[in-house]
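re: ur question from earlier - yeah i can do the single chain one, its not a big deal. heres the input i used so u can compare w yours
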Amino acid sequence: MKNKVAIILGTRPEAIKLIPIYLELKKSTNFEPILISTGQHASMLQQIFLFFSIKPDFELEVMTQNQTLPILTAKLFEELSLHFDKHKYDFVIVQGDTTTAFVGAVSALYYKYTIVHVEAGLRTHDKSAPFPEESNRKMIASVADIHFAATQMAVDNLYQENITKNVALVGNSVIDSLLIARQKIENNLGVYEKRFLDIIDPNKKLILVTAHRRESFGKGFEQICLALTTIAKEHPECQILYPVHLNPNLQSVVHSLLSDVDNIRLIAPLPYDDLVYLMSKSWLILTDSGGIQEEAPTFNVPLIVMRNTTEREEGLISGCSLLGGTDAKTILAQFYKVFNSQEVYYRMASAENPYGDGMTSKKIVDFLEKYFLKNKSQANL
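and the output i got, formated as tokens:
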């Protein structure tokens, strides 16, 4: 009999990083993967499901308008409890540090399922940034049975917390998805070029912006918008393209401050493959996204992280990214460091991606196969 594996996801980044693992598990003779979507980012999740041509086995639909974190957390616990009462599993896989991942892990603990944490060991050591993700991932680590770390630094972080059992260095599965997307784009390049013909000016340097982090709401986003406005006005040879996250708290600020600025174009959130295409065409990326910090180096695009701290320090160490903070002055200082020096630009663009090689999903499933066989053998003694 196959081991039933619940793969719980609720946001687009979780889907991007977990679906390759789901597809790899489907090849196994020992596991039956079940995909559970909580719908934390419902509309944005659908784009990923369409891209991979899959449909979740279960959709919980927990979100309501302007839902607070406590209410979302309570709703997730309720819905997952009802689900686990009806459906039994052997393994539960969660990814990263979202509210869905945290509640999924703790719910699995209550039902005594084996808990698998993908992208374990990321740390800023500051519970306010990113918020609430830093606390979420530390709490997940405390209950998880298997920890899949993307980098040696993440492994070291776990060891420092005395988490040493069933820790595996596997890379990041975001690269698995990225390579799938890149191949699709290369096979249909004309379609993507035509799609963005009226959006991208080929005579300008494309600066792609993504920013949505909760801890930057308020002054942080005002400063980010000030930095973008300054770049747009001082450098007409650049074009700033900003797909704006659907969060209404973000939409109102960004549109009020940037919608009338020449040389800045605000667009709706993009399907995953369209965003990958834009990354590949970018001269520079400004972001607060964790996933894009991992993806940009594959396309040899320098990146400025618009956060005060990052748990992905490997990018800073390898030289593919710079930490810009959320103050206009520091963001602009890093921008000019890249803009004014070809040497700095090409050094960043040529830095090796430290986050993975596209084989993470296979490494994870191979580990789970060995774990399953080992425990099966021990049970038969």
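The first helix runs from residue 12 to 25. not sure if urs matches, ping me
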